[in-house]
Amino acid sequence: MAIIASNFKTNHTRNTTSSFVEEVNKYLVSNNISNEVYIFPTATSLDKFDITSTLNIGVQNAYATQKGSFTGEIGTQQLDEFDVNTILIGHSERRHILGESQDEIAKKFAFYSDLGYKIIYCIGEPLEVKEQGLEQTLEYIYEQFEGININYEKLVLAYEPVWAIGTGVTATSEDITDVHSAIKSKIDKPLLYGGSVKVENVRDICSLNGVDGALIGTASWIVDDFIQIIENTKDL
Questions:
Q1: Is residue 90 annotated as involved in ligand binding?
Q2: Which portions of this protein are annotated as coiled-coil regions (predicted)?
């Protein structure tokens, strides 16, 4: 069944997140939806939510620590307060905008996997790599598994071509199936697609061979749209 995840990035407030989660939960319960749904709010919007077992609240980022002197970061002391045990690691915006190295990402992965967190691990290539062809694209992507335990039980992968995130440009069906089938042949884990996924195209994308769901940014920030996305994929 399709896994559908919303990454709020730097959007929504504590109040709007609370009502968003409440509405999504109400929809899931009243429609008896069994698909796994994830919401990754901002760190300031984390809370204890009264939600059904198929709805998971995760954190977009956290430091590899329980607590300590890491200005601007949060650790497990803060996450434990809200029973959060799901984390997004390796998102391209953290790699490319915030400069997280593969070494830092691998340390974070090791820390949170040791604690038994569900990890959605993001991989993807920039446009200049994509233009070099599939072989170079896969080579670039496989480097992002350096130091990562691909056999970790609670691992979900998300392929997000950097050139398709927030640009309105969606990879072609061929682009997606080429990369997804190559990754799936090496790593037997659920593999989501992310990159300009919308209400209109989510069903087609999630129906492709090797696609187990979607990690969605912009198109998931309006609650009615996110619910429609779940509705469009509920039987996959």
A1: no
A2: none
Query: d(Cα 68, Cα 76) in Å, to the nearest integer?
Result: 10
Residue 208: phi, psi to the nearest 5? -70, 150
Domains contained in the chain, number: 1
Looking at 12, 91, 93, 100, which residue is catalytic?
Answer: 91
The rounded distance, in Å, linking the Cα atoms of 82 and 53 is: 15
- The answer to whether 180 is a known catalytic residue is no
> How many Cβ atoms sit within 10 Å of the Cβ of residue 43?
15
Note the pLDDT tens digit of each residue in 86-112.
999 999 999 999 999 999 999 999 999
The parent domain of residue 121 ranges over 3-233
| Predicted local confidence at residue 189, as pLDDT | 98
6 is in an annotated binding site: no
| ∠ Cα 16 40 20 (to 5°) | 25
Residue 87's CATH number? 3.20.20.70
Exposure of 27 in the CB half-sphere (CA atoms within 13 A): 19
Q: What is the pLDDT of residues 35-48, one digit of tens each?
A: 999 999 999 999 99
pTM attached to this predicted model: 0.97
